[in-house]
Each structure stands twice: as C-alpha cells, then as structure tokens.
Amino acid sequence: MARCDFLIIGIGNAGRGDDGLGWAFADRLAHLAPDRLQLEYRYQLVPEDAELLTHFSRVLFADASQASLPDGFALELCLPDTDAGLYTHQQTPGAILFLSSELYGHRPQAHLLTIQGCEWGFDTQLSALARQNLERAFAGFQNFYGMP
Amino acid sequence: MSRKIVIDPVTRVEGHGRVTIHLDAAGAVQDAFFHIVEFRGFERFIQGRPYWEVPVLVQRLCGICPVSHHLAAAKAVDQLVGVDPEWLSSPATKLRRLLHYGQVFQSHALHFFYLAAPDLLFGADAPAAQRNVVALAGADKELARKGILMRKFGQEIIRAIAGKRIHGVAAIPGGMYRTLTAAERDYFLKDGDLPSIDTMIEWSKGMLEFIRHYHDQHRAWLDTFASYPTGHLALVRPDGALDLYHGRLRAIDHEGRTTLADVPTDAYAKYFDEAVEKWSYMKFPYLKSLGREKGWNRVGPLARLNVCDYLPTPLAEQARKEMFAYAGGNRVINHTMYTHWARLVEMLHCAEVMRDLLLDPEILSDDLQRHGRSRLEGIGIIEAPRGTLTHHYVVDEKGKIIHCNLIVSTTHNNEAMNRAVRWVARERLSLQPEITEGMLNEVEVAIRAYDPCLSCATHALGKMPLLAELYDCEGNCLQTVTRTSSGHLDA
Lengths: 148, 491
Hints:
The structure holds two protein chains of two kinds. By secondary structure, chain A is of the alpha/beta class.
C-alpha cells in the first residue's frame, strides 16, 4: 500500500443529495497535496476501517450534517467512543478509533468535519447551500491544517 | 420482574421487520409472525431498461452481497446474448468463481464475527450494549483482528476483480470485463499488507476449532434452540458436490428424502411457485409438488451442507463430516444454530477454492468473452451467501426488459424464519405476562442465524429493528415492545 500520512474518509451517499457532502469534500481535496493525502469514500464506516487507520498518523472523517451549524460546518476533535458499537457493520468515527486503539494499539490524531446540508432526496447534485458550505469547510480545512 | 426500557425513536424500526405474537385466553402463545414491511420494487422499475444495464442496476439491491446479484443477473444476461454457462470461456468462468467465492467468504466473515460471535460469546441474555463488535474487540482481540482481516481478504478479492469493494463492475454479457494481472494475483498469495490465502485457510481451520469447542460447552443449546423440521434447497454439481456458482437444483425433506431431483436451473419456474400473505411484503416460495404448506425450504449454509453429497475441497469436506458427527450423525441437521457452524465450514471451503483458482494460470488469461445468438429469456441462479438466488428476465426484440422475477435467498427462508419466531415464542414467551429484553433477544438470535438480508438495518446487532406486539385472543394488543437507537426497549 502506498503510504501517505494523512487519511481523509468521506462518508455518505452521493445519490441522496446533500448526503454526498462527505464524498464531495474528498473530491475537493483530490488536487490538494495528493502525495500527502489518501482519500477514501464510504457509504458507512465499517469495523475493518479500524485496520486501515493503523497506516496513518492523522485522519479526518468528513460527513454531512442535518444540524444547523453556525459556520455551515464544524471541525472538532474526534475521540474513541466505547459506547458507539450497537450497530455492527455501521460504525461511528469514535467507534472506529476505539477499535483501532483496542485491537492494534494505534490511535491517530483524528478530527470529524461535519458540513451542513439541507436536501436529502434522490439527487446526485448538491444543493446551493451545501455547495456554499462545502467551500467554507474547504477553507476551514486549509486554514486548520495549513494546506494552501 | 421484567425490565422495561424507553424507546426512542420508534421511527427507526418502521419499514423493516416486525414480530407479532398472539395469545389464547390462557395466555399461551397461539401464533407468531415475522413481518417484512419494506418494499423495494426492483422487479418493476427495471422494466423498460436495456438488458445490459441489469447486472449493474440490480446489485444495488444490497451493500453486503452485491456480487451475488451482479453474477446472478450476469448469468441470465449471458443467456440473453446466447451464451449458456458451459459456453462461457474458461478464464471468465474462473474469474467469476473467484469473485463469487471471495464474496461469500467476506459475507460469512461479516456475519460470524460482527453479528453472530457476540451472541455466542456473551449469550442471548447479555445486555444489548454488550452484544456488538466493539465489546467483542475488548473480550477477544485475536478473534476480532482475524475477523476484520478475513472480511478484508474477501473484499480485496472483489476489489481486484470488480474495481471496488461494493458495487463494482466485473461481468459483461457473455464474459468478464477484465482479467487479473500477475501482480494483482500475487498480492493474495504472499503474506504482506494483507495476509495470504494460505493464512486464510489456517485461520478458517482455527474458527472451526472455536465452534467445536463452543459446541462442547453449549451442546444442549446448539442442539435444541429453534430446532424444527424443514426442507432444504441448494445447487449441486452433476456428481452431487456443492457448487456455489452453478449447478442443478436439489431439494430434500427434513430426513433427507429427495423432493427435487437435480433439475436444471432454467426449469425453476416449472417446480417453484410463490405465495403471498397479507401481513408481509416478502413472498413465500414453495415446491409446487408439495404445496404451500409442505413445500417450503431453508436455504443457505446449513441447507447447502445438508443437500450436497460432499464438498469438493478436502479440508472443508473433513470439517463437514465432523459437523454432522457432532450433531449426532443424522443424515440431515435441522438445528437452526448449526447454521453458524455450516457458515464456518463454507468459509474454509471458499478459502480452499480461492487458493486453487489463484494458483490457476488461466485467471490471468484475456480470453474473456463469448458471443451467441440473442434470445428473449434468461435465467441465472447462484448460491449467494444466504442461499439460492434466482434472477429471471424476459426482454423484447429491442432488448428492453419486459419481465423480471427475483427470488432472493432470504425469501426462501421466510417461512423458516417465521417458524423460528414461533418456536421461540412458544418455548420462551408462552404464559409469560410481558416481553423481556432477554426474550426479544432470543427472537433476534433465531432470526439472525439465517443472516436475513432485509436491509442493512436488519443486520444491527442488539437493536434489530423489531417491533414485537402481544395480542390476546380477542385481537386486542396487550403490549408493544420496540427498541431504541441506544438498544433499549420501550414497552
């Protein structure tokens, strides 16, 4: 496996309107330091993603949000979550971090980026609000990680 | 005193599965039903689409076993372009087999390690919050690590052949889209980032040791829980060996008597019919010769090992014989919980088949497509992870789909799962004044053994989207119990 140091996981369904924001964010990064970023796309996180995390020191989970976010997006520290395991092949970012730490003794620096959307129907396009928030999130990412 | 727990949100359980339990005047269980209340509509909305789109469209039925739908549809579409299974090129057939056995391997790994193992390790009475893969990771790290890498191995096989792990494209009408390169093949033969196929075989053998040891400790439960007589259906080769990709349809009754004698898959409609019930969207397939009441069959791992004469790989065949010996040496096993054991035997079989195919130089060949004279009807039947899967298409002269019939594996198991629910209801809930969490968990354990593919949500452990209703003999609903997103019950 070619090694980058920074893993980006876009989460969502690009066929359900703004639920594709996580994938769109990963697409947005495709030409930004491709040698430093590995982009992955997921409908949902699964337990084997815990093994994937062991190859990286930094990880960012990007997902759409139905919540109203002041800046249109939120970037927050993601911590291992032991209570997130009720589902099985659908896991939260915190549960994946927990599994990676528990099973492999590896705990990357992890953040969760949520981007506000508003349209969730059968559509492969993002809404105008989602596109606007995507750009805000991209700028916030560049600023936070120092990637011009 | 039973525990009552708060439900929120009930909406999360709508559109999936529902259990209703009916009591007589004395409070004994009179009947119980497992309802499927979701509707997909694939058979209808692909009508009008060109046939070559079908293998790509229908795999969207599922995120766990899309390869099975892709290949069943591809087998049917092969016939639409005039290519019967025996006329497909040998490299294309072998690549499809490798893809399919990798798919079954990863699906079985997902079910055993993520869904079933917590039940087995912690017990049906354990709190829902404990019966999950995260708790499993804390309890048995080695088991969890192996589970993750075994599923990953199967998914990597799929990715190598189909381009991506979910909803890739591999099969085309009359063949395969691309072959493997030597480097792609070697990735699976040597231990590296991914454990090798030989390691998969060793770990599969180890899992069989695990289930044998578990049987020693829990024999009474495995040999009695949700045990009831059923028919069994699967594909077999002409020599009676199990074949997951192609074969003839064979069915037996609960004692091993033949009820369907190795008929060609093209003739399935002659032998099978489907009943409907007003309380479920899922149909009830049955053998016409036996009728609706007696003609239904289990499908899936246990049915396959019951139906076949032998497994065509040595280690798995030995494991199959050991399983039957542990079950008392009967010709047929009707114990639902042995489905887990059979699933592990099949994992070893899949690993052996994958190794043989990976070592076969033909999988690197580019002789991938055949052409024939167009036809108006195609039928593809395959053994998916959960059982016999049928895709049947009819097209018009322009190649547009005008008829589609899908009999998905879980549909065959519909009656069997209803029987399982009734068994648990009568054995565990009868004459009880209310439903406890432990009782509902046992309903789930019985259903889960069949690995039903109702939707991804149905795979949720400890919070299978169940709504359980208790009715008196007047038809009045006495109690409703559902689960919350936190796994708690509300009554």
